[in-house]
Amino acid sequence: MASLTCLLGSPAHSHPFSKKLLSLCYLGVESLLSLRQTCRTLQKATSSRHIWLHLARTLLSQSNVPRLEEPLDSYTGKELEDWTLRRCRVQRAWSSSNLRFTRRTMQGLISPPILLPGGRWLLSMHEGDRLLVTDLDARVLEPKTLVEVEEFIKGSNISDLPDAFEVWVDPKAAHLIVGLFFVN
Q: Which domain of life is it from (predicted)?
């Protein structure tokens, strides 16, 4: 309890706020998330960009963690927090003794799936003239129809379609926004 009092910053304590914030950096992600639930002061403190930047750097120093697409300085605190939490979830899942693999085969794919920048979204073209998207952060990996492409490809050979479109993704958007340009 003494360390919690220190972090809360009792008036009798002489450490400046930055040192208290620095001490939060050395807590694990699970502890930070637990502390966040205790009071508004700690909720605000554990949302600091400084903390998530430190945790992201720590994760990036490990060889098995995928790199960020942009330099660390270009990300907001919330973006760093989201990135760190996703990587920690993956690490926890991979290190679990209860890890079970389920193999899923998607029938009717006409080309290999495309992993979009950022590593969250997977696009695939289905022979039923549908462009499918799968959110890899979802609890259940369920492909959803993004667009029925039949109306765009009249007279085209469906097997040529994966090479006939470009995809742009806005990595800063909270939801997937995809722009498609079909070349006919």
A: Eukaryota
Any domain includes 105: no
Cα dihedral 63/68/70/75 (nearest 10): -120
pTM across the whole model? 0.51
Q: Residue 133 sits in which domain range?
A: 114-182
Report the pLDDT value the prediction gives residue 76, as an integer from 0 to 100: 92
Where b means 16+ CB within 10 Å and e means fewer, 83-97 reads bbeebbeeeeeeeee
The whole-number mean pLDDT for each consecutive block of 10 residues of the chain, a chain of 184 residues, reads 39 48 71 83 83 88 75 89 84 69 62 74 75 80 78 55 57 64 56
Nearest to 128 by CA among 143, 142, 107, 154: 107
Number of domains making up the chain: 2
Report the alpha-carbon distance of residue 28 to residue 91 in Å, rounded: 13
Reported as half-sphere exposure (CB side, CA atoms, 13 A), residue 98 has a value of 2
